[in-house]
Amino acid sequence: MSRIVKTPQPPYYAVIFASQRTEGDNGYGKMADKMVELAAKQPGFLGLESARNHELGITVSYWRSLDAIKSWKENSAHQVAQERGKTEWYENFALRVCKVERQHFFEM
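RE: above sequence
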């Protein structure tokens, strides 16, 4: 994503996904695009920010509630992507769920 997401007033939740990829694309880019499109249609989805260099990727998705996060985790297409991530695309990853209680934005 190329912009900072404008989220509503807290509280809401952030899911932080940090990962190190395996070599090659192996369909990763196409699936990642599909997951962003699908997540955006999920009830409670507030937005997403993502950055990756050659060593580390970090994606932060924002959600209205823990139930919305649970529904996304249980989405059947997302489960397929999760399994492929474990078997094909990631050397390792970490997933953290946080409650956002305060926020500040700056724009020029």
